[in-house]
UniProtKB/TrEMBL annotation:
It comes from the Bacteria. This is Ogr/Delta-like zinc finger family protein. It comes from Salinicola corii. InterPro entries: Znf_Ogr/Delta. Residues 10-56 form the Zinc finger Ogr/Delta-type domain.
């Protein structure tokens, strides 16, 4: 069985693996935290922010409190489906 792909953070300076030290959920679509390079010769540490910005596939169980824009491609597909159904 194939292992699922995992996001791998890299140091912006040396390109080595950078490990997330901690993160906290600020809102349902926004997270921030600290990250550090694992290359002992580099030693860089920094902060990061992670935000969901657009919907690529609509949820089958949407949260009414979340409003994310729908991508242009999804919007076009949904509009085409509505037009077909109304014809």
């Amino acid at each position: 069985m194939t292992k699922p792909a995992q996001a791998r953070n890299t140091c912006p300076h040396c390109g080595s693996y950078a490990r997330v030290r901690y993160s906290k959920q600020v809102t349902p679509i926004y997270r921030e935290g600290a990250i550090e390079c694992q290359n002992a010769d580099c030693g860089w540490r920094g902060k990061f922010s992670f935000e969901f910005t657009v919907t690529l596939t609509p949820s089958m169980t949407p949260n009414p409190d979340i409003t994310l824009p729908v991508s242009a491609g999804v919007r076009a597909t949904m509009l085409a489906q509505l037009l077909r159904e109304s014809s």
